[in-house]
Amino acid sequence: MIGGVDPSLIAGLFGVALVAGTCDAIAGGGGLLTLPALLLAGLDPVSAIATNKLQGSAGSVSATLAFARRGLIRWPGAAPAALAAGAASVAGALCVSLLPKSALDALVPLLLIGIAVYFATARRIRNEDAAARLSPKTFALTLAPAVGFYDGVFGPGAGSFYMIGFVTLLGLGIVRATAHTKLANAASNLGSLALFTLQGTVIWPVGLAMALGAFLGAQVGSRLAMRLGARLIRPLLVVIACAMAARLLANPENPLRRAVLGWLFGG
């Protein structure tokens, strides 16, 4: 036993995090694999979410380092947005019990489907940068903290929301937008992880093994993203956004699902 946890279970979760880290570095959505795996491993929901933040932080930091080494992060504009996202994620984590989760359950799938449609159909999504619609300072004061707060409260799709902001509002090409998204993700993950650590809800033997897997996987994923660019990132973003929306709607208690089924079947 390692810290009271079966080594075979730790090895299996390491493998899941390795795959998830690879996907997450390219298009986000790694939590689609890791969070269910942690719940199936027997962790309670709070410990699963906290431990998932540890591996998610490792993956996003790893991807950020890989993109930064290639000069794809513009630090003067990116750093304020990341700091705002990190601070807002702590505020979001503190406000979890105060916000109506049912509203998020209904709204987020619609937003994810909208993002998938945008990336699938927009002609201007490419590797080259375009004209910005907002200044980096305005972005750091508006969308970055809004998504960071959401990441602390709920989380699914945060990377997709960052991505569409960097592409549509700051005019970044898709590879550079991915790099900036990973930095913002790292900041909001680390912010909420700090709070979970203080609360003592992280299962460290599991989390550290998964963090190593996520770190290594993110190195692979970031290299694939830089090599293949929009040819890989764009279709994977569409698939991941749709998969996250489907997963949220698969919950029988999802209010949007219940409303649609009630409209269709009169119940």
UniProtKB/TrEMBL annotation:
<comment type="similarity">
    <text>Belongs to the 4-toluene sulfonate uptake permease (TSUP) (TC 2.A.102) family.</text>
</comment>
<keyword id="KW-1133">Transmembrane helix</keyword>
<feature type="transmembrane region" description="Helical">
    <location>
        <begin position="190"/>
        <end position="212"/>
    </location>
</feature>
<feature type="transmembrane region" description="Helical">
    <location>
        <begin position="159"/>
        <end position="178"/>
    </location>
</feature>
<dbReference type="Pfam" id="PF01925">
    <property type="entry name" value="TauE"/>
</dbReference>
<keyword id="KW-0813">Transport</keyword>
<feature type="transmembrane region" description="Helical">
    <location>
        <begin position="106"/>
        <end position="122"/>
    </location>
</feature>
<feature type="transmembrane region" description="Helical">
    <location>
        <begin position="232"/>
        <end position="250"/>
    </location>
</feature>
<keyword id="KW-0812">Transmembrane</keyword>
<feature type="transmembrane region" description="Helical">
    <location>
        <begin position="80"/>
        <end position="100"/>
    </location>
</feature>
<dbReference type="InterPro" id="IPR052017">
    <property type="entry name" value="TSUP"/>
</dbReference>
<dbReference type="InterPro" id="IPR002781">
    <property type="entry name" value="TM_pro_TauE-like"/>
</dbReference>
<keyword id="KW-1003">Cell membrane</keyword>
<protein>
    <recommendedName>
        <fullName>Probable membrane transporter protein</fullName>
    </recommendedName>
</protein>
<keyword id="KW-0472">Membrane</keyword>
